[in-house]
Amino acid sequence: MNGRRRLIGIVTSNKMTKTVVVEIQRTFSHPLYRKVVHSTHRVKAHDELGCQIGDQVLIVECRPISRDKSFTVQAILKRDGKTLTVEAQEGA
Fold first, then answer.
1. What is the CATH code of the structural domain delimited by 6-82?
2. 26 DSSP 8-state letter
3. Contacts of residue 41, Cβ cutoff 8 Å, sequence gap at least 6
4. Is there a contact between 43 and 28 (Cβ–Cβ < 8 Å)?
5. What's 67's DSSP letter?
6. Higher-confidence position of 2 and 75
7. Single pTM value for the model
8. Taking a C-beta distance cutoff of 8 angstroms, is the pair 59, 71 a contact?
9. What is the pLDDT of residues 6-27, one digit of tens each?
10. What was the pLDDT predicted at 87?
11. Which stretches does DSSP call E strand in the chain?
12. 3-state DSSP assignment of residue 28
């Protein structure tokens, strides 16, 4: 494995050409108050696979492609609530 970050999120927009907006949700316990905190983060990712809104995707950190894009979609994990077979696309 290399040092690239791999994140799983939901596609919220695909209106741009070869770009999708992925929303990443994180749940953690606050270190002082021990309350459960839900946080979301939205990133733009390069899309060559043709993702649709609502897909669960695996995104991987890459070199900066544009001002906002430094992630690329590696695989589509779920589409329409159905789990897809994941072929490892190493070298991408």
1. 2.40.50.140
2. E
3. 23, 24, 26
4. no
5. S
6. 75
7. 0.84
8. yes
9. 999 999 999 999 999 999 999 9
10. 55
11. 6-16, 19-29, 36-46, 56-61, 69-79, 82-83
12. strand
Instruction: Give CA–CA dist 78/35, Å, rounded.
Output: 30
Q: What is the pLDDT of residue 90?
A: 47
Residue position matching structure tokens 């669960």: 56
CB 60 within 8 A of CB 89: no
Q: Structure tokens of 26?
A: 């994180």
Amino acid code (one letter) for 80: D
End-to-end, the C-alpha distance of the chain in Å comes to: 13
* Residues 57/48, Cβ–Cβ less than 8 Å: no
pLDDT digits (tens, 9 = 90+) for 52-92: 999 999 999 999 999 999 999 999 999 988 888 655 444 44
